[in-house]
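Notes from hallway chat w/ T.B., transcribed later so I don't forget. T.B. wanted the structure written out for a chain they're using in a teaching module, and asked if we could keep both sequence and structure tokens in one place. Agreed to drop them here.
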Amino acid sequence: MIFSSRLMPLVFSFLMSIYMVTLMTCLITLVNTGLDAGFFSRWWRAFYISWPVAFLLILLGAPRMQKMAAKLIRNFNACGVAGDK
């Protein structure tokens, strides 16, 4: 184990934000401006502006979203609808 389990929210938020922001900023920059000589600098600018926002949103929002998902799954199974249990 590299990190203490008490750091799980920070490690998860860091990894998820890097993953999502890298893919999304790359895709949106590519779609909006195309792949040319200035692509990397435009992508990097979008990345470093977006990453801190994404990190904070995931850090603050992930626990709430996990609870909401658990309730939705529990309610879905309680309705007697076939699915994973």
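Follow-up for T.B.: The chain has a mean pLDDT of 91. Might be a good example for the class.
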